[in-house]
Amino acid sequence: MLIPILITIVAGYFIGAIPVGWLVARSQGINIFEYGSGNPGATNVMRALSEKLGRKGKKFGYLVFVLDGIKGATATGWPIVAGGMNLFGALDTAHLETLGLVGLAAAMLGNSFSCFTRFRGGKGVSTGAGGFLVLMPAPIAIALLVWWAVFEITRYVSLASIIATASLPVTSLIMNLVWGDGAWWVPSLVVVGISAVAAVFVAVRHRSNISRLLNGTENKFVKKRAGT
Fold first, then answer.
1. Cross-strand pairs, 87
2. How far apart are CA 60 and CA 107, in angstroms?
3. What is d(CA 13, CA 108) in angstroms, rounded to the nearest whole number?
């Protein structure tokens, strides 16, 4: 397993390190590291390009979210597929799951500390969501609903992201306790544990947002009235 794990780590890191947000913003003449929070994630890209391009700018924010998610899904999924095709030799389900988790962890680190942008990067939410979509689709679907509900109520993207990520280990653990890990939609306890670690990682990456939330200075996405 050592060689497959090393290959998965290296590939996952470089996939995650692709600076999607920086590239998208740069294509529109903006250095995202010099705008707003300086974060190259979907939220800051959306704010920056909406300010410059209006409604069209929002589409670029959505694009960054999707592409970052694809990075996570790719880094997680390819070693599972490769292992399933016996390209790494005969591996059982547990080993394939391990490779997927390693790829996801490497991608989240690459996304957050990209070697292409002097080890600056996003907060890992979109990349993590894409990876966990491969490993635990049902809890991710619930987490997306949680994100939407929190955002609609508070209009804080950061708070929605933190709470939605934190819901993953809770939801998946409940599923595991109720149905066991025999059903395809129920993640194993190992995946549950890694999702908890990911939730802590995301919270730490949002520590400045948490501070602003507590101080009442965090930026909101305010709904515009019709005709304005």
1. 89
2. 21
3. 8
Note the pTM of the prediction, 2 decimals: 0.92
Catalogue the long-range contacts made by 97-100 (C-beta closer than 8 Å, 24 or more residues apart). 97/135, 97/188, 97/190, 97/191, 98/1, 98/5, 98/190, 99/4, 99/5, 99/8, 100/76, 100/131, 100/134, 100/135
Where are the chain's structural domains? 1-118, 136-221
Locate 73 and state its tokens: 């899904």
Helix 189-205 with 125-135: angle, nearest 10 deg: 170
Q: Tell me what percent of the chain is helix, strand and coil, each rounded to the nearest 5.
A: 75, 0, 25
209 has pLDDT over 50: yes
CB 138, CB 150: distance < 8 Å = no
- CA atoms of 71 and 17, how far apart (whole Å): 9
- Residue 100 CA to residue 103 CA, distance in Å, equals 5
Whole-number Å distance between alpha carbons of 210 and 203 = 8
Beta bridge partners of 89: 87
> Which tens digit of pLDDT belongs to each residue from 138-153?
999 999 999 999 999 9
